[in-house]
Here is the input.
Amino acid sequence: MEFGRCVITGVSTEPARGPSSADGLYQFWTDREEPVRLHDTDLVSVSWEAGPRPVLTTRFVYEPGWVPVEVTGRAVVEFVFGDAVVREWSTIDESEATRPSGEVDLSDWDGNRAFSLRASSAAIDFSAGTLHVRTVAAT
Here is the structure.
């Protein structure tokens, strides 16, 4: 399904359940009818693969006790952004953090290609041409 100029896959195509520029990527449903609630997760990793079509991958793990029943056994939410261009990436020294490491504050999307992610440990502003969302088992 295409939303704006970023092609987003792995999400519900129902208007009330898919991601929107109003709600960003903070809370929505996958195409497998699994809820994604980043406010109940921690950002556990961000990886960058340079190349002709750069990839930015973010992984979020549900906090114990907050795993939706629909995703039991697949408590990791993975966002894979293709054709990614990072505009700004900053990290916060964990010794200076006032909240638990990885706590997600914001996952914005402008409805086109611009994304912003804010967590207690990092802030990333970037653009992407594609996004694939999936839930996977914790490793």
Summary: The mean pLDDT is 87. The chain has one domain: 2-136.
